[in-house]
Amino acid sequence: MKKNFILCLGAMLMLAFGMSSCSKDDEKDVETSDYDPTYEVSYYEKDPGLNVKQSHRVNGTVEEYIPQSEPPYSLLVSWNDEKGKQAIDYVLEKNPHLMTKEAEILTSNEYRISTKKYFKSPYFYVSSSYKSSEHDDWGVNPYRILILPQILLKMKDGCSIDVIQRDYADVLTLKGGKQNLFYNFDCNLKTSCEIIQLAFKISQRNDVEYAETNMYGGYTLF
Fold first, then answer.
1. Which residue, 8, 1, 6, is CA-closest to 106?
2. What is the reported pTM?
3. How far is Cα of residue 126 from the mean position of the Cα atoms in its chain?
4. Distance between CA atoms of 83 and 174, rounded to whole angstroms?
5. Residue 198: what are its φ and ψ, rounded to 5°?
6. Are 14 and 212 in contact (CB under 8 A)?
7. 60 Cβ partners below 8 Å, 6+ apart?
8. Contact criterion met (CB below 8 Å) for 105 and 111
9. pLDDT digits (tens, 9 = 90+) for 83-132
10. What is the 3 state secondary structure string of the chain?
């Protein structure tokens, strides 16, 4: 049985600060199997974040984000301009042999893609698929999480969001005003590993009460 995507606010899934680390040195251990200079697309046999510690804290307990270790990879790909749309469509058209199913259109700028290789490009954002602690209705298959290129943030009382906007102006853009207790920022980083790392870094600030990734959850693999 397949569940529809559910947009999960970080406040509902992660009840305390996120913790993670993601280094370029770890990615060096994962060799690219192919490279296409047209849109600077790198292909990998293994998810580059597979051996990178990516975790968050739930009720005081650290739980790891565990990306898929074997293909087919269920990936979230999103873009914010026409160049990004051209790039991902180019990947799909050039590599039909790598795709295990037709791309699923989620929104006007998001695809869910099942592929035999992990890939990434500076022209679009890619999220790995992570295991969830939740399971399907039979308690057998774990649901998955896809990280959105967004960060949910709550400031401590008396602290201004203006400081965050100034310090991270190169990577974060505020989506409207405050919604409930949280600010929602778009992030221009290109992989879910980087988003998790940034959320953790921001959560360590003295003026921030909470910072976590936004995500899709409650779905099974293709």
1. 6
2. 0.84
3. 7
4. 22
5. -65, -40
6. yes
7. 16
8. yes
9. 999 999 999 999 999 999 999 999 999 999 999 999 999 999 999 999 87
10. CCCCCEEECHHHHCCCCEEECCCHHHHHCCCEEEEECCCCEEEECCCCCCCCCEEEEECCEEEECCECCCCCEEEEEECCCHHHHHHHHHHHHHCCCCECCCCEEEECCEEEEEECCEEEECCEEEECEEEEEEECCCCCCEEEEEEEEEEEEEECCCCCCHHHHHHCCCCEEECCCCECCEEEEEECCCEHHHHHHHHHHHHCCCCEEEEEEEEEEEECCC
- Distance separating alpha carbons of residues 185 and 153, to the nearest angstrom: 8
Amino acid at 26: D
Task: Decide if 83 contacts 91 (C-beta within 8 A).
Answer: no
- The residues that bridge with 64 in the sheet, in sequence order, are 55
If you search the block for the tokens 């490009």, which residue do you land on?
A: 121
Q: What are 119's strand-pairing partners?
A: 43
